[in-house]
Design a protein that fits this description.
Radius of gyration: 34 Å
Number of helices: 9
Largest sheet: 6 strands, mixed, barrel
Strand content: 5-15%
Helix content: 10-25%
Low-confidence stretches: 146-152
Distance between the termini: 76 Å
């Protein structure tokens, strides 16, 4: 009997079956867990790519405009209409209800500091904002209850409920994208928004004013001030060129400006502004005489300006003989409002009768269409820019005014190649700033965000109160810069500034 017991105890036959029976559930469980983890990882990667795209689409609209958040939300909605399916059974379409989209004014500098879906970081700082002009980042987070058949989570194959856990797994990726906009082809000058008021409810952005026709054919006159600028003023921006004069003459600041990071420039350099702009009218100050063959310093193809016979290549003297004078530049507007820095719009076609008769051999004004009116209405009285462009397009630049001026619009002082009409050298890209709201930043010479950018047409050369002094002599006191606004950036503009702007949305997290 004892021998039988000893034999049974030492008998190892069938032990493998016992071990297999014990380990099989473990092995199957591990296999299922591995499959679940692989599926979860694949779903996470797919979702991450999806919300990366959503964050980028939303961030690309955060350009500081008053409608930026509504456009960003529309971009997310449009992208979700692609109906990409995310679920275990392949029948759940990712919807807006599956996401939390939060707009942020900034993000923590340290990437290790996490953000909640509500835009609150690990230190309790809230970055979220609903101000469309302040936000620059879009945060997109997948809700933990937004994926599987409307119930929420990723369903596992591994039966975790047997061990007291859940048969679901939350997949909650997050993406944060930001928007940067820069402009490279611009002069280092900002103009105060003439449609800004002390009351935000009555203010207009430059884009709103342009789209409604409020800027069309108005003459804007802007003067430099040292402090507390407002409508009717302009200021200077830091640039990477040694000479402000050369930056304005060439039309580039030597750097690209980020849309929300302009820094104003100190110092009074009015003579340089005067000399730089007047190059475009074929006027070369004493310090620029050596540039009269340099293509970068070329004038416009139409430089008609109403010059007296005593004007020369380095000094502009307006014709004052008559009436009518023997030469006439683009005429000024009526009812100048110094508090806004602008005149009334051109009211009737007869505004142009005298100008046209003097400069085009006594011919009757041909009622030029309002080609640049923002709504496409061509029946309005033509703007100064419309008339200027019409003269170029119809080969009228060479027409001469009467004796003694005998002025034409053809440049005669520039000694280089014949200037071309495109790009137009009497157009400048210029930042527009809400100066009343940003006076402390402007005076403190710290970074500020402009209201936008405008393409402006220079109506006349900048004159001096004392024409006996050189263009760069600031003691002579400049008269205002006279200009028209012909386009603005953004969706309310005509798109001519698009080639100068660089829009970039990028992922940060």
């Amino acid at each position: 009997m004892l021998g039988t017991i000893r034999a049974f105890r030492s008998d190892q036959r069938g032990i493998a079956m016992i071990l297999v029976a014990i380990m099989l559930p473990v092995l199957v469980g591990l296999a299922l867990l591995a499959i679940d983890m692989s599926r979860a990882n694949g779903l996470h990667n797919d979702l991450q790519k999806g919300i990366d795209a959503l964050a980028l689409a939303a961030a690309a609209e955060l350009d500081g405009r008053s409608d930026s958040i509504s456009r960003a939300n529309r971009a997310v909605t449009n992208l979700l209409s692609n109906e990409t399916k995310f679920s275990t059974s392949g029948d759940h379409t990712l919807a807006l209800s599956d996401l939390t989209v939060t707009y942020l004014t900034g993000i923590p500098a340290d990437d290790s500091i996490s953000l909640t879906a509500a835009g609150v970081d690990a230190n309790g700082v809230t970055w979220a904002s609903t101000d469309p002009k302040a936000v620059a980042f879009a945060e997109v987070t997948v809700n933990p209850s937004g994926l599987t058949d409307g119930a929420g989570a990723f369903a596992t194959i591994f039966p975790a409920s047997f061990i007291g856990s859940n048969n679901t797994m939350d997949i909650q990726p997050q993406a944060v994208a930001g928007f940067t906009q820069s402009i490279c082809e611009t002069v280092p000058i900002f103009m105060c928004n003439p449609f800004e008021t002390d009351t935000p409810a009555t203010s207009k952005t430059i884009q709103q004013a342009f789209a409604s026709g409020d800027t069309y054919s108005r003459e804007f006159r802007i003067l430099k001030v040292d402090s507390n600028p407002g409508p009717g003023n302009f200021g200077l921006i830091d640039n990477n060129l040694t000479s402000l004069r050369d930056a304005i003459a060439m039309g580039t600041a030597g750097t690209c400006y980020q849309r929300d990071k302009l820094t104003t420039k100190t110092g009074v350099t009015l003579g340089q502004v005067n000399a730089g702009i007047n190059v475009r009218f074929d006027i070369y100050s004493n310090s620029l005489k050596q540039q009269d063959k340099n293509w970068q310093y070329r004038p416009a193809s139409n430089v008609r300006k109403g010059a007296d016979k005593t004007s020369n290549c380095n000094k502009f003297v307006p014709a004052t003989d008559g009436p009518p004078p023997s030469a006439m530049g683009l005429p000024p507007g009526a009812n100048y409002d110094s508090s806004k820095g602008m005149t009334d719009p051109i009211g009737t076609q007869s505004f142009w009768n005298t100008y046209w008769s003097i400069n085009h051999n006594g011919a009757a004004y041909p009622s030029i269409p309002s080609a640049t009116y923002p709504t496409g209405d061509t029946t309005r009285p033509a703007s100064r820019y419309d008339v200027y462009k019409y003269e170029i397009a119809n080969n009228l630049v060479g027409d001469k005014s009467p004796n003694p001026s005998k002025e034409s619009g053809i440049p005669s002082c520039f000694k280089g190649d014949t200037p071309t009409a495109d790009p137009d050298r009497r157009l400048l890209n210029m930042a527009i700033v809400d100066c009343l709201a940003n006076q402390s930043k402007i005076n403190g010479h710290i970074q500020l965000k402009p209201d936008g950018y405008a393409s402006v047409f220079i109506n006349t050369p900048i004159q001096k109160q004392d024409n006996s002094k050189d263009d760069e002599d600031s003691s002579a006191n400049e008269k205002p810069i006279s200009l028209e606004i012909v386009d603005v950036d953004g969706p309310l503009g005509n798109g001519t500034l698009d080639k100068a702007l660089r829009n970039e949305a990028q992922l940060y997290r």
